[in-house]
Write a structure and sequence with these properties.
The chain is mostly helical and 106 residues long. The protein is built from five helices and two strands. It folds into two domains: 2-39, no CATH class; 53-105. It has a two-stranded antiparallel sheet. The radius of gyration is 27 Å and the shape is elongated. It starts with a helix and ends with a helix.
Amino acid sequence: MRQALGVTKGGKLIARLEDGVLSLETVETTVRRAQAILRQYIPEGVSLVDELIAERREAAKLEWDRLCEFCRSGLAWSRLRGASAMTANAPWAKRSAFDIVMIRIS
């Protein structure tokens, strides 16, 4: 039976009970069946991976923009350094948000 399913010793099977029938499938077969079911709901030519990557990049850009704005506001340094106020003449006040983050991390 293992050979018919293509399962080696120690391999994993998924057991499913449906309408009184017990079915055994390999994990790979179960994944392919699930993908086939989901594929029905995804329009032709649409890549969910590409959409996810685009969403993540947009979220990262928004987060970066918020961080840059936060750093430019001066609140970042007053909070990070525990200072009561940031002075505009401080040497680090004219650095970009990227420099500020790099300085803080390193």
